Amino acid sequence: MTVFTEETRARAREIIARYPADRSRSALLPLLHLVQSEEGYVSPAGVEFCAEVLGLNKAQVGAVATFYTMYKRRPTGDFLVSVCTNTMCNVLGGQEVYDTLAEHLGVGHDETTADGKITLEHAECLAACDYGPVMTVNYDFFDNVDPQSALGVVEELRAGGRPMPTRGARLCTLKEMAVQLAGFADERDGAVADGGPGEPTLRGLRLAEQHGIAVPGFDPNTPIRSKAEADKAAAEAKAKAEAAKPAPATAPAPTGSAVASGTPGNAGVGEPAPAERATGSTAPDVKSPDDKSPEIRAAETRQPDARTAVPDAPGTKVPTDPTAPAPRDAREAQAAGTAANAPAGDGKPAGDEAGAQQRNLKEAEAGAGSNGAGSAVASETGVQK
Fold first, then answer.
1. How far are the Cα atoms of 35, 151, 347 from residue 143, in angstroms, in the given order?
2. In this structure, which CATH number among 1.10.1130.10, 1.10.10.1590, 3.30.470.20, 2.60.40.1120 belongs to the domain 6-67?
């Protein structure tokens, strides 16, 4: 049984700390990548480890681990080679690429070579149709492959080399990739400095440059601000906007009116109460929806409770369920519906009458030898009957 290292446990605590205390189970996905980075797959011991640190049972963890294809349930090679065999890539030769690799490596889908280097799989879609046929090695792209170029990639991998992907950073092993998927940076020197975008990806930028299209006021040399800087700038802009707002004008009280104290019951004669002035209703105000949490607002929207006021606007009526029909009325309605919709039989739609079908068929056969006008008359007569 695998005993996970203290480094893995420290990283697990760091992952869990990214989430609110009452939402720690949200850390399950990166934790599964973390245990895969140590074992090369999600083993029963890995499932037990995730359940232990999150306070879940193993069935809950296993349900997630078996749902997503990026979590491997058996030992996987250093390099996971995925060939797209979905519609676009298949039309362009993706299946031929996969078949060639399977025959050359002597393995099938989700199987690993004897030297433990390569695990082959066919993928339903790798989201790169404009580069098809494509394959990935540990989720890095090799575009526009054919059988021979794909063979060259896997042979270089088996010889200990690291072929450069068409797009993206230099290759790493599946375990190293799992560390990154768990949310930790690639610590290899210069690892993320390599690679570049593909030409189809840049096509939109090329067209924009060609036609002089640009975002108004955009300066590509402006550095991206940190979150703290962006929050500070937003707060300053909000404070400036608040300061620029004009002070609300106070309307003078009508002559001869009673003292308006702000409560509905103290409004003067002819002076509507504040709630009535705003909405035409004399109902007391209720809290704004924004005063409640999103979960409570969603629950009240989906299933309002007659005992709780709906927090939309003053005077809003709370919806209530209508009176349930009596059992006898319900049974009569069900019987009437069943009688009006007889079940289909012998492949005929419900409600068809066999006698009418036979009569129309005989009339059509009788009119088959007649001229076109006779046939049309017979057909029309049959339809009318």
1. 30, 14, 51
2. 1.10.10.1590
Which candidate, 308, 313, 283, places its Cα nearest to that of 296? 308
Per-residue pLDDT of the chain (385 residues; tens, 9 = 90+): 567 888 889 999 999 999 988 888 899 999 999 999 988 999 999 999 999 999 888 999 999 999 998 999 999 999 999 999 999 999 999 999 999 999 999 999 999 999 889 999 999 899 888 898 999 999 999 999 999 999 999 999 999 998 989 887 888 899 999 999 999 988 877 777 666 777 887 888 888 888 888 777 777 677 767 778 888 888 998 898 888 888 776 656 555 544 444 444 444 455 555 544 544 555 555 555 456 666 666 666 655 555 555 455 455 555 555 666 677 777 787 778 777 776 655 444 444 455 666 777 777 778 765 544 444 444 444 444 4
**In the block, which residue shows the tokens 């490596």?**
105
Residues in the chain: 385
Long-range contacts of 71-75 (CB under 8 A, 24+ apart): 71/32, 71/33, 71/36, 71/41, 71/42, 72/36, 72/40, 72/41, 72/42, 72/119, 73/41, 73/42, 74/41, 74/110, 75/39, 75/40, 75/41, 75/112, 75/116
